[in-house]
Amino acid sequence: MKKIRTKTNWIKEHLSDAYVQKAQQDGYRSRAAYKFLQIHEQYKLIKPNHRIVDLGSAPGSWSQAISSLLSEEGKIYAIDLLPMDPVKKTTFIQGDFRDEVILNDLEKMIENKPVDLVISDMAPNISGNKVRDQAMINDLNELTLEFAQDWLKPKGNFLVKTFMGSGFDEFVKKLKNHFSKVIIKKPDSSRDRSAELFLIGLEKL
Prior knowledge:
Rossmann fold; seven-stranded mixed β-sheet
């Protein structure tokens, strides 16, 4: 009975959420679109002709938000374990970013050319074991940074979702070795109770 009540309360809260309602009005697939838009509004991560890699892209709200900011020359390359409906200016591949074969496919998709922005909204399936979950988050962050090191243009930008926990400070320090400025951000559209944070690396060194 408690689980049913909790689920009912979540649904009520979700449907009454201002960003959920705004996403429905604006045609975005989820409220997460505003997380990217609010960060971009403050830090100007992209220009209209940029090429962007969107890791962990499904259901596609970040790609949607970005596509509205791009010119015809701009391009998004998206990847996720889950399927994703088409988004304008976006080429999508379904697969596991951690799989070397899939990673090679992604590199071919970007034509083995450097990109202007790497973003990641990836998160592991939470098991409830905090130590294990944080280790999985850290592994995803490290892989995302490795990809950015390999494929970001000089002065390119980087955005990754993460969570406070063991290894967080060390990862921030590592980012500072690769970017001119590193920012820790929790946008207004991120729910207060959510432990998520976003790390922004500006101007790859």
